[in-house]
Write a structure and sequence with these properties.
Distance between the termini: 23 Å
Strand content: over 45%
Oligomer: single chain
Radius of gyration: 19 Å
Strand order of the largest sheet: 1-21-20-19
Length: 342
């Protein structure tokens, strides 16, 4: 039976418990994805790097693992899932932006990785990029029978940059999001940077669609960008896609108000087929603020990497990476699990 299409779909949130903030004094924590294990624990996979390195995610991020008895925390760090394994590997020095799924009894951890010279040009309060590492970003997947591991990594990327100089992803591919298609197979949306803009950072920055019959590929790429906005070279980032109530849906970071008048925010898109996406009727998901259960509303510098924890087909929590800036301009980052009203 076909699910009834909900054209008035809306995400609404309850206030956030203080235990639902995952942070560290010495480690920068960024971006998380949750899966429930056979052990009845909730397993969080997240990006992290040492705080004294500055904003060094491009060169020094690793994907770590924490657990909790609740999807709303508190989460306790357990181990490093995807750490350094040598500059000779495509993902040997840096792993970042995980998203975890369970498909047909196995666990799949999608992520981006890179390699390079290992040089970190950052200091706390001053963001600089190592462009070799950034431009080596590719998409991978690790596979396990249990979220506690062991995780099998692969020596080639799942999604590589295209060899065609005119391709949308000629320079790099990163930030994967994936969902099972109702008619079989898998749909992935990922961020891509081309080479048409002739500078070290490349561009434009767009999002691409790819499909596969298997969670581990091979993926077929489609030469059509999604989440685009006229007059913007970099309108969107960090999509999380899923299928619910008869449509593909996506929460996307609106970089600077390309889709609503709220400025930088999280917005909701929808699609009938996963290829043609439009802003939903209730398009604004969240401004740059967190409503805590103690009654305070915290304004934050960023609220991004949105990912849903979905249980029995229903979104339960919205996970976001967030940060605030201190008087020295240093970003202090944390992850937050926001309850969704049902």
């Amino acid at each position: 039976m076909e699910p009834v299409k909900d054209d008035n779909y809306k995400l609404e949130f309850d206030k956030v418990a203080l235990k639902s903030k995952f942070e560290s004094d010495s480690i920068t924590i960024w971006g998380a994805s949750i899966i429930k294990g056979q052990d009845s624990l909730y397993h969080m996979f997240y990006s992290r790097w040492k705080k004294d390195l500055g904003w060094a995610w491009v060169t020094h991020s690793e994907i770590a693992h924490a657990t909790s008895k609740s999807p709303f925390g508190p989460f306790i760090h357990k181990d490093v899932t995807l750490g350094v394994r040598g500059a000779e590997f495509w993902d040997g020095l840096c792993t970042h932006n995980p998203t975890v799924h369970k498909f047909d009894g196995k666990y799949y951890l999608y992520y981006m990785g890179n390699t390079g010279d290992g040089v970190n040009p950052c200091v706390p309060g001053k963001i600089k990029y190592n462009w070799t590492h950034r431009n080596n970003q590719r998409i991978g997947v690790a596979v396990a029978d249990d979220p506690n591991g062991p995780w099998k990594r692969f020596d080639t990327p799942l999604i590589d940059a295209s060899s065609d100089e005119n391709a949308l992803d000629a320079l790099l591919a990163n930030n994967p999001s994936i969902t099972k298609r109702p008619d079989g197979g898998y749909l992935m949306v990922y961020k891509a940077v081309g080479k048409k803009i002739k500078k070290i950072s490349g561009g434009p920055v767009v999002h691409c669609v790819a499909t596969s019959d298997s969670p581990t590929g091979p993926f077929k790429k489609y030469d059509k960008p999604v989440f685009t906005a006229k007059g913007h070279d970099f309108p969107a980032e960090d999509p999380f896609i899923w299928y619910e109530k008869g449509k593909y849906r996506a929460i996307v970071k609106d970089m600077h108000g390309a889709f609503t008048d709220a400025g930088q925010a999280l917005v909701l898109f929808e699609s009938e087929d996963g290829f043609d996406w439009n802003l939903s009727k209730n398009g604004l998901v969240s401004k740059l603020e967190i409503n805590w259960e103690d009654g305070t509303t915290q304004k934050v510098d960023h609220l991004e990497r949105p990912q849903l924890y979905i249980e029995n087909g229903k979104p339960i929590a919205l996970l976001c990476a967030s940060d605030v800036k201190d008087e020295k301009g240093v970003l202090h980052a944390f992850n937050v699990q926001i309850p969704i009203k049902n």
